[in-house]
5-formyltetrahydrofolate cyclo-ligase
Amino acid sequence: MSDTDLVEIKAKARKAAFVRRKAAFDARPPSVAGSLSGVLAGYRGVPIAGYMPIRTEIDPLPAMAEAAAYGPVGVPVITGMGQPLKFSRWQPEGALRDGPFGAKVPEQDDFFEPEILIVPLVAFDRTGGRLGYGGGFYDRTLERLRAKRATLAIGFAFAAQEAEDLPLEATDQPLDMIVTEQGVLSPA
């Protein structure tokens, strides 16, 4: 399979996944953040990075706010195309500014390296495969962090975002866990 074919296959998979995610977002399943809070409770005080939800992404902010009472919580900051993400310390009521791609970032940068990443996604599979937006930011970031120490990647998604046969590449970093409104999946 050529690189061009894989790009087209991934684009088609993303389009279908966006439709499923929007339908799930519009349905607003109950207690979504509660599942994530339950998982994070087992890691109190461990440096965590979440994300500021955009468009139809599932909202991790309630779980992040709860975790912030016990230790550092950050959000991603894009420093440039082709670069790994940096993570700036976030507080539930902290001042924010506009960042790239419509996501808010803390007004003042206070960078740190998380040991747990709550990862947004377009689609996932039961083996820990993740289809993102296509920029490779999380793959580069997880590869860099995992080269230094164990780093837990938690995919946070609506159950409807599950897919089979995701078009994955060797550079795609796997998820260690997926949290949905229907429960927690631990890929084999």
